[in-house]
Amino acid sequence: MVYLSHMNEFTAKKLGEVYAFTIFGHDTLNKGGSPILEKPRNQFFTNIKEKNEVHGAELKRIAEKAGVSEAMLAKAEKTVEKLKKMREVYIGDQWQNATEVCEWSGFFEGAAIVHWQLLRGAEKTIKQETLLILTEEGVNTHYEFLEKFGGELEEVGQAKAI
Description:
By secondary structure, the chain is mainly alpha-helical. It has five helices and no strands.
Protein backbone atom coordinates (compact mmCIF):
# COMPACT_ATOMS: atom_id res chain seq x y z
CA MET A 1 0.00 0.00 0.00
CA VAL A 2 1.26 3.47 -0.87
CA TYR A 3 0.67 5.99 1.91
CA LEU A 4 -0.25 9.64 1.50
CA SER A 5 3.19 10.68 2.65
CA HIS A 6 4.46 9.19 -0.62
CA MET A 7 2.15 11.19 -2.88
CA ASN A 8 4.05 12.18 -6.00
CA GLU A 9 4.09 15.48 -7.89
CA PHE A 10 1.52 14.34 -10.46
CA THR A 11 -1.02 13.51 -7.77
CA ALA A 12 -0.28 16.72 -5.86
CA LYS A 13 -0.95 18.69 -9.06
CA LYS A 14 -4.20 16.80 -9.66
CA LEU A 15 -5.25 17.70 -6.12
CA GLY A 16 -4.48 21.32 -7.06
CA GLU A 17 -6.48 21.22 -10.25
CA VAL A 18 -9.49 19.71 -8.56
CA TYR A 19 -9.14 22.19 -5.71
CA ALA A 20 -9.15 24.99 -8.30
CA PHE A 21 -12.47 23.71 -9.63
CA THR A 22 -13.96 23.88 -6.13
CA ILE A 23 -12.77 27.48 -5.67
CA PHE A 24 -13.68 28.60 -9.15
CA GLY A 25 -17.09 26.93 -9.17
CA HIS A 26 -17.93 28.95 -6.10
CA ASP A 27 -16.55 32.12 -7.72
CA THR A 28 -18.67 31.61 -10.84
CA LEU A 29 -21.85 31.18 -8.83
CA ASN A 30 -21.09 34.31 -6.83
CA LYS A 31 -20.29 36.32 -9.93
CA GLY A 32 -23.13 35.00 -12.06
CA GLY A 33 -25.47 34.18 -9.25
CA SER A 34 -28.16 36.76 -9.73
CA PRO A 35 -29.92 35.27 -12.79
CA ILE A 36 -29.66 31.67 -11.67
CA LEU A 37 -30.12 31.99 -7.93
CA GLU A 38 -33.43 33.79 -8.49
CA LYS A 39 -34.86 30.65 -10.06
CA PRO A 40 -37.33 28.67 -7.98
CA ARG A 41 -34.89 25.76 -7.93
CA ASN A 42 -32.22 27.82 -6.16
CA GLN A 43 -31.61 25.19 -3.45
CA PHE A 44 -29.67 23.27 -6.09
CA PHE A 45 -27.24 26.16 -6.49
CA THR A 46 -26.88 26.53 -2.73
CA ASN A 47 -26.00 22.81 -2.64
CA ILE A 48 -23.27 23.39 -5.24
CA LYS A 49 -21.67 26.02 -3.04
CA GLU A 50 -21.87 23.81 0.03
CA LYS A 51 -20.40 20.77 -1.73
CA ASN A 52 -17.58 22.88 -3.21
CA GLU A 53 -16.73 24.13 0.27
CA VAL A 54 -16.74 20.63 1.77
CA HIS A 55 -14.70 19.17 -1.09
CA GLY A 56 -12.23 22.05 -1.00
CA ALA A 57 -11.66 21.70 2.74
CA GLU A 58 -11.13 17.95 2.41
CA LEU A 59 -8.69 18.38 -0.49
CA LYS A 60 -6.67 20.85 1.59
CA ARG A 61 -6.66 18.45 4.53
CA ILE A 62 -5.45 15.58 2.35
CA ALA A 63 -2.69 17.73 0.83
CA GLU A 64 -1.56 18.88 4.28
CA LYS A 65 -1.48 15.31 5.57
CA ALA A 66 0.54 14.23 2.53
CA GLY A 67 2.92 17.18 2.82
CA VAL A 68 2.08 18.50 -0.66
CA SER A 69 0.11 21.64 0.21
CA GLU A 70 2.59 23.97 -1.44
CA ALA A 71 2.55 22.06 -4.74
CA MET A 72 -1.23 21.69 -4.61
CA LEU A 73 -1.85 25.39 -3.99
CA ALA A 74 0.63 26.47 -6.68
CA LYS A 75 -1.12 24.29 -9.25
CA ALA A 76 -4.54 25.46 -8.06
CA GLU A 77 -3.52 29.09 -8.57
CA LYS A 78 -2.39 28.40 -12.16
CA THR A 79 -5.55 26.43 -12.90
CA VAL A 80 -7.81 29.17 -11.53
CA GLU A 81 -6.10 31.66 -13.86
CA LYS A 82 -6.71 29.37 -16.85
CA LEU A 83 -10.34 28.92 -15.87
CA LYS A 84 -10.80 32.68 -15.48
CA LYS A 85 -9.48 33.27 -19.00
CA MET A 86 -11.73 30.58 -20.48
CA ARG A 87 -14.77 31.87 -18.59
CA GLU A 88 -14.12 35.43 -19.74
CA VAL A 89 -13.89 34.32 -23.36
CA TYR A 90 -17.06 32.27 -23.02
CA ILE A 91 -19.32 34.53 -20.97
CA GLY A 92 -17.79 37.95 -21.60
CA ASP A 93 -20.32 40.55 -20.51
CA GLN A 94 -23.29 38.14 -20.51
CA TRP A 95 -23.42 37.62 -16.73
CA GLN A 96 -27.11 38.50 -16.52
CA ASN A 97 -27.95 35.91 -19.18
CA ALA A 98 -28.81 32.73 -17.29
CA THR A 99 -28.51 30.66 -20.47
CA GLU A 100 -24.93 31.78 -21.05
CA VAL A 101 -24.04 31.12 -17.42
CA CYS A 102 -25.61 27.63 -17.61
CA GLU A 103 -23.82 26.88 -20.91
CA TRP A 104 -20.50 27.86 -19.36
CA SER A 105 -21.39 25.79 -16.31
CA GLY A 106 -21.96 22.74 -18.49
CA PHE A 107 -18.51 23.15 -20.03
CA PHE A 108 -17.02 23.73 -16.59
CA GLU A 109 -18.72 20.70 -15.02
CA GLY A 110 -17.51 18.40 -17.81
CA ALA A 111 -13.96 19.61 -17.20
CA ALA A 112 -14.39 19.18 -13.44
CA ILE A 113 -15.52 15.58 -13.97
CA VAL A 114 -12.46 14.59 -16.00
CA HIS A 115 -10.12 16.19 -13.47
CA TRP A 116 -11.83 14.35 -10.60
CA GLN A 117 -11.50 11.14 -12.66
CA LEU A 118 -7.75 11.69 -13.06
CA LEU A 119 -7.47 12.08 -9.30
CA ARG A 120 -9.61 8.97 -8.82
CA GLY A 121 -7.20 7.09 -11.07
CA ALA A 122 -4.25 8.27 -8.96
CA GLU A 123 -6.09 7.12 -5.86
CA LYS A 124 -6.18 3.59 -7.25
CA THR A 125 -2.39 3.56 -6.86
CA ILE A 126 -2.28 5.44 -3.56
CA LYS A 127 -5.09 3.31 -2.11
CA GLN A 128 -6.12 5.81 0.54
CA GLU A 129 -9.73 5.39 1.64
CA THR A 130 -10.41 9.07 2.38
CA LEU A 131 -9.26 10.04 -1.11
CA LEU A 132 -11.28 7.20 -2.66
CA ILE A 133 -14.46 8.37 -0.96
CA LEU A 134 -13.78 11.98 -1.89
CA THR A 135 -13.04 11.24 -5.55
CA GLU A 136 -16.14 9.08 -5.91
CA GLU A 137 -18.24 11.83 -4.39
CA GLY A 138 -16.55 14.49 -6.53
CA VAL A 139 -17.17 12.63 -9.79
CA ASN A 140 -20.78 11.84 -8.87
CA THR A 141 -21.48 15.37 -7.64
CA HIS A 142 -20.25 17.00 -10.83
CA TYR A 143 -22.22 14.54 -12.96
CA GLU A 144 -25.26 15.62 -10.96
CA PHE A 145 -24.44 19.28 -11.57
CA LEU A 146 -23.89 18.65 -15.29
CA GLU A 147 -27.23 16.87 -15.53
CA LYS A 148 -28.97 19.78 -13.83
CA PHE A 149 -27.42 22.42 -16.07
CA GLY A 150 -28.24 20.25 -19.09
CA GLY A 151 -31.86 20.02 -17.97
CA GLU A 152 -32.03 23.79 -17.55
CA LEU A 153 -30.67 24.25 -21.05
CA GLU A 154 -33.12 21.73 -22.53
CA GLU A 155 -35.95 23.80 -21.06
CA VAL A 156 -34.48 26.95 -22.64
CA GLY A 157 -34.11 25.17 -25.97
CA GLN A 158 -37.72 24.02 -25.88
CA ALA A 159 -39.00 27.49 -25.01
CA LYS A 160 -36.94 29.23 -27.68
CA ALA A 161 -37.73 26.77 -30.47
CA ILE A 162 -41.34 27.95 -30.63
